[in-house]
Amino acid sequence: MGKHRSRLKILANILSVVGENKGTKKTQIMYQAYLSYKLLVQYLNDVIEAELVTCENQTNFKLTQKGEIFLAKFDEYVTYCADVDEYLNQIEDQRLMLNEMCPNNGCPNTASKLSKKM
User: Fold this and answer.
1) β-bridge mates for residue 62, sequence order
2) What's the predicted TM-score (pTM) here?
């Protein structure tokens, strides 16, 4: 595992579970979103307060229209992040290629030699 999920990722996981199932219960959300009960209660309070999820009969949770919009925007965000990561990887590859073209092979710094001659 290694990496921890961000708050946004956890919220999106909860909303996805609730959105996939009609009338989702706490236990189902907890298991499918990989949360402890303590964290589940905390995050459920957050999504209910933000009006992303509604709670019916104290047991069934349903995704609101605002929750659907959040999930769509989160998907866009994830796509943008992946695009940026790919672009940054390309930049790093270019930097490595340039470094390989002009390696430091242990010779004394030629820039300092040139400045002494001038």
Assistant:
1) 54
2) 0.74
